[in-house]
Automatic annotation (TrEMBL):
EC number, as in UniProt: 3.1.6.1, 3.1.6.15
GO annotation, cellular component aspect: lysosome
Family membership: Belongs to the sulfatase family.
Compartments, record wording: Lysosome
UniProt KW Metal-binding keyword: yes
The encoding gene: Arsg
Needed co-factor(s): Ca(2+)
MF GO annotations: arylsulfatase activity; metal ion binding; N-sulfoglucosamine-3-sulfatase activity
Domain of life: Eukaryota
InterPro entries the UniProt entry points to: Alkaline_phosphatase_core_sf, Sulfatase, Sulfatase_CS, Sulfatase_N
Residues in coiled coil: none
Lineage, highest ranks first: Eukaryota, Metazoa, Chordata, Craniata, Vertebrata
Name listed for the protein in its UniProt record: Arylsulfatase G
Organism: Peucedramus taeniatus (Olive warbler)
Domain annotation Sulfatase N-terminal: ranges: 31-371
């Protein structure tokens, strides 16, 4: 890996990886892997985490049959950076993805970054991605060029293009235009010019997407992919990036009493995860590790269409305005639900309090597959096989939280965790439901919270207190060593340039790029004529 002389920081990061590499020796064959990533899901959106949530019976059962991680974090508090970190095991300051890509982006996850799919395919795996990509769709940034044998899904968030049945959003968005410029309605925060595309590999198979059938189609494609791999006798890696719980929400049925639109959509997500688990079990119970988590916390500005934070309310920030959820470095922005299920390997009915991250998925799956980490780069994730197997409950000693849009330069690390202590060098609030934002503030010395006593992040330690003075030197050293480690690394730079020609469009002659003869919900998507135009 091009390891330099070991600093205390390097020991902290690398030792658990080396310790965990022996774990695969107990496995008789390469396991299958399913990683399910929910979008904008709150820590409190699982009933197993938060008693007020009643709509996740299957996920709660998954927690009972596996291990639930209480202190699990996304690598950023917004879409593209979090996904890039999952697939590389590296923070955005290393892999170059510091903020979201646009529908007209020419670039994506830098091509010199090696993805988890590329490593596992080299190790003999069938690799498939289903759902939201959002790591670049133009040219060689498409999933098929980033290690995935099969792709079915949408190239970015499903609110980044119009549809014929827009679903529920705040504010609501109009449907796609049909009859030329006169029918187009400009609406703030809405995409009205180009319809949302659905891709199978590089072919646009539907534009606009019928959102109401998306969950069903994802489940069907996941089943087909797993069955194909099983029939060929190959292990598989399936990455399922759900549209749930990002807006717009399109619940399958009218919400029942007390459920609301969000609850009905949460129930649909729960059923989708259950179906994928059922298929995996039918192909050989105990042969597949299923890992469920989220890309970041709830999108608070969507009001009643946003998820539950649980106890992670970021009270200090709320008192000063703005949201403490998605796009922030408060716990509500990056602490996400996480479950692991693998009968016979991952203990059932276990709750882990190890400090873990979405960054850990990459090195852990690579180790379990018996593969090697890519050389000439450093990783922020750990091989946490011992935690998965219940042999240990020790994760990160230090975990970095990059700025994600609410305050500070995006991608830069200005908040970190050291054991139970959380330090902020910059704070700020994202847009809240009431439209307010919290001012960005620099803190030198940093704000420090003891999360063991103050999970709501309400009252920072008094800088004059003995506790603050005792922990500050350790935090300062860890922060300095982290920044030095990043500066010495092989760092990538993403191309964020844009060109309207990069927007996926199956028929430029039609308003909104509508596919000829495709009319959304008026046709069965399974028999719809495939568009000849390619995304690349």
């Amino acid at each position: 890996m091009g390891i330099p002389p070991l600093s205390p920081w390097a020991v902290l990061v690398l030792t658990p990886v080396l310790v965990g590499l022996w774990a695969p020796c107990v496995l008789s064959r390469q396991p299958n892997f399913i990683v399910i990533l929910a979008d904008d899901v709150g820590w409190g959106d699982l009933g197993a985490n938060w008693a007020e949530t009643k709509e996740t019976l299957h996920l709660d059962q998954l927690a009972a049959e596996g291990t639930r991680f209480m202190d699990f974090h996304s690598a950023a508090s917004t879409c593209s950076p979090s996904r890039a970190s999952l697939l590389t095991g590296r923070l955005g300051v290393r892999n170059g993805v510091t903020h979201n890509f646009a529908i007209s982006s020419l670039g994506g996850l830098p091509l010199n970054e090696t993805t988890l799919a590329e490593v596992l395919r080299e190790a003999g795996y069938s690799t498939g991605a289903i759902g939201k990509w959002h790591l670049g769709h133009h040219g060689h940034h498409h999933p098929n060029s980033r290690g995935f044998d099969f792709y079915f899904g949408i190239p970015y968030s499903h609110d980044m293009g119009c549809t014929d049945t827009p679903g529920y959003n705040v504010p609501p968005c109009p449907p796609c235009p049909r009859h030329g410029a006169a029918a187009r309605v400009a609406r703030k925060d809405c995409y009205t010019e180009v319809a949302l595309p659905l891709l199978e590999n590089v072919t646009i198979v539907q534009q606009p997407v019928e959102l109401g059938s998306l969950a069903r189609r994802y489940a069907e494609e996941a089943e087909r992919f797993m069955q194909r791999a099983s029939d060929r006798g190959r292990p598989f890696f399936l990455y399922v990036a759900l549209a749930h719980m990002h807006v717009p929400l399109v619940p399958p049925l009218p919400p029942g009493p007390g459920r609301g639109i969000y609850g009905a959509s949460l129930g649909e997500m729960d059923a989708l995860v259950a179906r994928i688990k059922e298929v995996a079990d039918s192909l050989g119970r105990g042969s597949t590790l299923l890992w469920f988590t989220g890309d970041n916390g709830p999108w608070a500005q969507k009001c009643e269409l946003a998820g539950r934070l649980g106890p992670f309310v970021g009270a200090w920030q709320r008192q000063r305005g703005g949201s403490s959820a998605k796009q922030t470095t408060w716990e509500g922005g990056h602490r996400v639900p996480a479950l692991a299920y693998w009968p016979g390997h991952v203990p059932a009915r276990r709750t882990s309090h190890a400090l873990l991250s979405i960054l850990d998925i990459f090195p852990t799956l690579v180790a379990l597959a018996g593969a090697a980490l890519p050389p000439n780069r450093r990783f922020d994730g750990l091989d946490v096989s011992p935690v998965l197997f219940g042999w240990s409950d020790v994760g990160h000693k230090v975990l970095l939280h990059p700025n994600s849009g609410a305050a500070g330069k995006v991608g830069e690390v200005e908040a970190l965790r050291l054991a139970q202590y959380k330090a902020f060098y910059t704070t700020g609030g994202a847009m809240a439901c009431d439209g307010s934002t919290g001012p960005a503030q620099r803190h030198q010395p940093p704000l420090i919270f003891n999360l063991d006593r103050d999970i709501q992040e309400q009252e920072p330690l008094d800088v004059a207190s003995r506790e603050y003075q005792a922990v500050l030197p350790a935090i300062s050293r860890a922060y300095a060593q982290a920044l030095q480690d990043i500066a010495a690394d092989n760092v990538s730079v993403a191309d964020y340039s844009q060109d309207p020609a990069a927007i996926p469009c199956c028929d430029v002659q039609h308003v909104g790029c509508r596919c000829q003869g495709a009319h959304g919900a008026t046709r069965d998507p399974h028999v719809e004529r495939r568009a000849p135009r390619l995304c690349l």
